[in-house]
Amino acid sequence: MSNLLHELENNEAILLMYLAGELPEEDRVEVEQMLANDPALRAELAELTVLQDGVTGIMERVDAKSDLSRREAIVRQVSRALTAARLQPLRTESAPAETARPRLRIAWWAYPIAIAAALLVGIMLLSDNHPMNLPAPQSNQFVDSRDSFQPQATAQIFPDDLEKELISLNSEGTGLFGTGSPDLDR
Amino acid sequence: MTLMAGKSSVPLTKPGPTHPAAEGNHPPDALLVDRLRLGEAAAGESLVRKYYQPLVRYLQRLVGNEQLAEELHQQTWLSVLEHLGRFDARNVSGGFKAWLFRIATNKANDHWRSAGREKAAKHGLKQITDETLPAADFRMEGSEQEMKLKRAIEQLPEAQKQVLMLRYYSNLKFIEIAEMIGCPLNTALGRMHKAMLKLKELMAD
């Protein structure tokens, strides 16, 4: 006797396994010997066979009448769901650039500063101080070489009396444009 | 003396062309599973087609509702796909089929767990409507026996129902069923025997 038959606790268990054909050959032979010698066990087996056939018959009949016409539609639906589920991670992996693209973030305080700057530029343009009101430089003020830059250019910008005053101040050593200005040397 | 040898008797499994093993010329499960792992959608469809009938019937008998059974059927397959990477046929007694039916069983159990109270309420309501709507029964004359079976199955204890339906629809061996539901072989066989007795009795009424 194998371990399996030895482990089965009662006749129903042994007979169910026997009827199902799930006993090893050695056990099956053993059970047939038991059946040959025991009429009560034979009667029990016959009863169990009728019961099993009856239940199988009921379920077969019911299943045969039961409608499974949606089979194709469901198989396709499930297959589509499987394909979609299978492809989903692939889709997200294949298009990371779109989702991972960093977005330009502008701080909230930049907006009032930008507006203020735009207003300032607008005011300057409308006022007399904008650079277009400065006297236009004459075409002969600049020549090709930097070394030949002429000092007369400044004389065109400042009035004569103011220029003289500035020159005199500089020559007196006040250092207005002289070397040694701490701000310029810094 | 002639005895009813095990192989020649009628085991309680779903016979005929609807049985998964006999249905169509499908390649072996192991091959289809490998192809599905590689992302071949056709292999998935073959598996769904192969197990459609026993799996949907099994779920229908467990939950007693066709629409819910179809929903759980879909959830089962999505779960199969999700965990396919971890499935190893060598570690599962009964192979892919046992694994598939285990997932389906878990889905049905999860459903009942999450809707335990709702089920009790619906059951009560159903008893009332079944009794007070004879016209509906008349309309379903063709499926009267199915309704009777459905009611009889509903009256079986959950554990007995599970073993009976697994045995009938999955065609798994008793030892595989016991392993799947996590009980000793003797317990599974005892549940099977009690379920058959009760079902026969209820259907005879």
Walk me through what this model shows:
The complex is a heterodimer of chains A (186) and B (205). Chain A is an all-alpha fold and 186 residues long. Chain A has a domain at 3-65. In chain A, 66% of the residues lie in helices and 0% in strands. Chain A has helices at 3-7, 11-20, 25-37, 39-65, 71-94, 96-100, 110-126, 152-157, 160-171, 182-185. In chain A, α3 crosses α4 (39-65). The two termini of chain A are 107 Å apart. Residues 92-100, 145-150 and 174-186 of chain A have low confidence and may be disordered. Chain B has one domain (29-204): Rna Polymerase Sigma Factor, Chain: A. Chain B has helices spanning 29-37, 41-63, 66-83, 95-114, 116-132, 134-139, 144-155, 158-170, 174-181, 185-204. Chain B is an all-alpha fold and 205 residues long. Chain B is globular, with a radius of gyration of 18 Å. In chain B, α2 packs across α3. Helices cover 71% and strands 0% of the residues of chain B. Classes of the chains: A mainly alpha (186), B mainly alpha (205).
Task: Give the SSE layout.
The complex is a heterodimer of chains A (186) and B (205).
Chain A: H1 3-7, H2 11-20, H3 25-37, H4 39-65, H5 71-94, H6 96-100, H7 110-126, H8 152-157, H9 160-171, H10 182-185
Helix pairs in contact in A: 2-4, 3-4
Chain B: H1 29-37, H2 41-63, H3 66-83, H4 95-114, H5 116-132, H6 134-139, H7 144-155, H8 158-170, H9 174-181, H10 185-204
Helix pairs in contact in B: 1-2, 2-3, 2-4, 2-8, 3-4, 7-10, 8-10, 9-10
Features of the shown structure:
heterodimer, A: 186 residues, 10 helices, B: 205 residues, mainly alpha, Rna Polymerase Sigma Factor, Chain: A, 0% strand
Mean pLDDT across every amino acid position of chain A: 72
Q: What is the first-to-last residue Cα distance of chain B? A: 36 Å
The CATH architecture of chain B would be Orthogonal Bundle
Q: What's the mean pLDDT score of chain B?
A: 78
* CATH class (first level) name of chain B: Mainly Alpha
Radius of gyration of chain A: 53 Å
Number of strands of chain A: 0
CATH H-level name of chain B... which superfamily?
RNA polymerase sigma factor, region 2, helix turn helix motif
Number of helical runs of chain B? 10
User: What is the β-strand count of chain B?
Assistant: 0
Radius of gyration of chain B: 18 Å
- The backbone outline of chain B, from C-alpha atoms, is globular
